[in-house]
Amino acid sequence: MMENEAWLDQQEEAKTVRKIVLFVAIPIIVLMIAAIISGYLYIQSALKPVNPNSQQQIKVSIPIGSSVYDIASILEEKGIIKNATVFRYYVKFKNHADFQAGDYTLTPAMTLAEIVETLKTGKVIKPAKLKIIIPEGKQLTQIATIIAQKTGYSREEIMAKMNDRRYIEELMKKYPTVLSAEILNKNIRYPLEGYLFPATYSFSEKKPSIEQIIEAMLAKTEEVLVKYEGEMTERGLTVHTLLTMASLIEEEATEKVDREKIASVFYNRLQAGMPLQTDPTVLYALGKHKERVYYKDLKVNSPYNTYLHRGLPPGPIANAGEMSINAALHPADTDYFYFLATPTGEVIFTKTLDEHNREKAKYIGKQ
């Protein structure tokens, strides 16, 4: 009898516990569902026009060098979009780029798709009074020289701004998808090395500020890299790693070379635990340009020297064009571990050190 009473007590206790659990859990579940639904409805609402029936026309100016972050903030402030964050994610998800600086007449009745298309086909605010051409494969010091020649700023003040820690930290906040703490590594020579995209830059002023010029180049880098976010994630590459690898490919490439094969050699060597042993990193470590690297040069004590240190150098050694960025993301599938550029610009790929040395002896003898 007592056993039955105990069993009944246990059942009653279990029933009470279940009631308490349900009493606590149901409100939490309801709140979670409500949060998910409200979040979904909020995003759906933010994707729609601010006011589909509006006839109001609003003047909006997008300055040269504006990032997607800047553009979204301007549009939200002007009442053209509902939410800047949603707009930025929309642009990334749709893989949009090539926004143009200019004066626009927009309306709150426009959809996000209409706004994006308008911003991609706009005209520059004023005729360009200054053009700066930055070629591929240029190092930061060379870029500073080009800017100095075009603007009248001294090379020293340009380099000082590019290496100003406080300014770099401001840029990191402004371009968070491009600049990370990796650029402040103590082994890195110049934080912005490799981050100023090679392109032609037009300015409506004869002498824009150094900041305007730098940020126009960073905005271009952001515009290019946003297209590759998914592929970077798939390959497990950060922007810094991607630009570092792309810079090595850029510096080793010739007009006749298959960049994807060069990329395959670098990746094969990394996977095998071999040093990359690429001469451009030695020249970067030396801080000089030479036609030929000698054995004594290979001993230069620098974290950039890939003959002494395995893995990638601390950061990019030059700016890379989109072809090299593509190659870094899509290396060829080969079993090559060596390559050699001939005097005619041809590149010979080999699998073994013996093969490489034979080719090297053959072509060095012809030099």
UniProtKB/TrEMBL annotation:
Q: Which key words tag this protein in UniProt?
A: Cell membrane, Cell wall biogenesis/degradation, Lyase, Membrane, Transmembrane, Transmembrane helix
Judged by the first EC level, this protein's enzyme class is lyase
Cell compartment(s), UniProt:
Cell membrane
- The UniProt entry lists the main location of this chain as membrane
Give the way it sits in the membrane. Answer: Single-pass membrane protein
Sequence intervals crossing the membrane: 20-43
Q: Which GO terms describe its cellular component?
A: plasma membrane
- Which CDD domains does this UniProt record tie to the protein? MltG_like (cd08010)
Instruction: Quote one Gene Ontology molecular function term.
Output: lytic endotransglycosylase activity
Mind telling me which residues the site (Important for catalytic activity) is annotated on? 252
The GO biological-process annotations, alphabetized, read as: cell wall organization; peptidoglycan biosynthetic process
InterPro entries (UniProt xref): MLTG-like
**What family is this?**
Belongs to the transglycosylase MltG family.
Q: From the Swiss-Prot or TrEMBL record, give the protein name.
A: Endolytic murein transglycosylase
Source organism of the structure? Thermolongibacillus altinsuensis
Q: Which gene encodes it?
A: mltG
